[in-house]
What we know:
Order of helices and strands: HEEEEEEEEEHE
Low-confidence stretches: 7-26
CATH topology: Immunoglobulin-like
Number of strands: 10
Catalytic activity: 2 superoxide + 2 H(+) = H2O2 + O2
CATH class: Mainly Beta
Enzyme class: oxidoreductase
Keywords: Antioxidant, Copper, Disulfide bond, Metal-binding, Oxidoreductase, Signal, Zinc
Radius of gyration: 20 Å
Helix content: 10-25%
Number of domains: 1
EC number: 1.15.1.1
CATH superfamily: Superoxide dismutase, copper/zinc binding domain
InterPro entries: SOD-like_Cu/Zn_dom_sf, SOD_Cu/Zn_/chaperone, SOD_Cu/Zn_BS, SOD_Cu_Zn_dom
Number of helices: 2
Structural class: alpha+beta
CATH architecture: Sandwich
Amino acid sequence: xxxxxxxxxxxxxxxxxxxxxxxxxxxxxxxxxxxxxxxxxxxxxxxxxxxxxxxxxxxxxxxxxxxxxxxxxxxxxxxxxxxxxxxxxxxxxxxxxxxxxxxxxxxxxxxxxxxxxxxxxxxxxxxxxxxxxxxxxxxxxxxxxxxxxxxxxxxxxxxxxxxxxxxxxxxxxxxxxxxxxxx
Length: 183
């Protein structure tokens, strides 16, 4: 009888554990989308984001049109997806660890520092990159936050002034889109 009760207790805890694991798996976001529909009327496009597991990199791919031709433009994740006042209400770069601004390859940087996107002679940026510091789930989740494109090239924190360490001197916000869960 004792052995039978022990067996049922073990099965019960195993079932609870599996239920917890399955609900956690369902809560993991593996695909997201950003549609650039706020800011300049000329800038439009979308990005698809994928992440296989919470510890893997986030792949970002897509096309953005209507940008300044033949230049690089700052590309960041900002704290908020609030666009009621356009891109200006998206707050600062996503920076939960209160670091200085830096390049995507810097160890010490904002989580939302994604560097620059390269724009071709037609004003189009084809984006196909991956990042390890952002995530679609967990502490560094960017779901509900905003991607922002800036008017100038990001100096990656190497500009030698306070603005560089805060924003990369990337200038005003010309377009943004909210990161949403994708099917």
